Amino acid sequence: MPTARESLLDAAYAALAARPWAGVRMVDVAAEAGVSRQTLYNEFGSKEGLARALVRRETEGYLAGVSRALEEPGPTAGGGVEARVVAAAAWTVRAARTNPLIRAALTGCWSERLPAPAGGVPGQRGARSGGAGAYADGPPPGPTELVGRFCDRAMAALEADWPKEDLPELGTACATAARLTLSYVVAPAEPEDLTRQLHNAFAHAAHRA
Length: 209
Known about the structure:
elongated; mainly alpha; 9 helices; 66% helix
């Protein structure tokens, strides 16, 4: 059974799908989640706090999907390091296409419909404060941090299958893959083009190694 916090975030996401964030009312979010408005304010402090928590949840869910793809690329992806990166890239493009919050976080382009992060430098972590469940953290990760975390997860998942002495080449290839993937989020093209470019990046890295 979901916690009150998860129910509130689910209700906020559903409300955002139906109307611009400016038109989302806290009282309606609380009612949809089946909790009191006081519970909502205890959890998030304000509408801005709810927005930050919602975007952070969606970006963390996206990164969890990156990790899953790197570990288990799927039966059609084939084997090898490149296939796992291709799977993570495909997940990124798909998530950005279907979830406007993930797309905005990856690109830094927040439309008027969305709860643009505010109250600090994008990607800067804040601290928890107040009572149980209360948050005063900064905005969720921005594009630079998300690219970095994509690279970190790719390195962690792939380094065991790469010669130890050539890990710098793997790091370069992972960084290239992350930025190529982000370019396809910003300007979508044929998936085969992204797959080919990713294979080329890792083939180049392997050749240099």
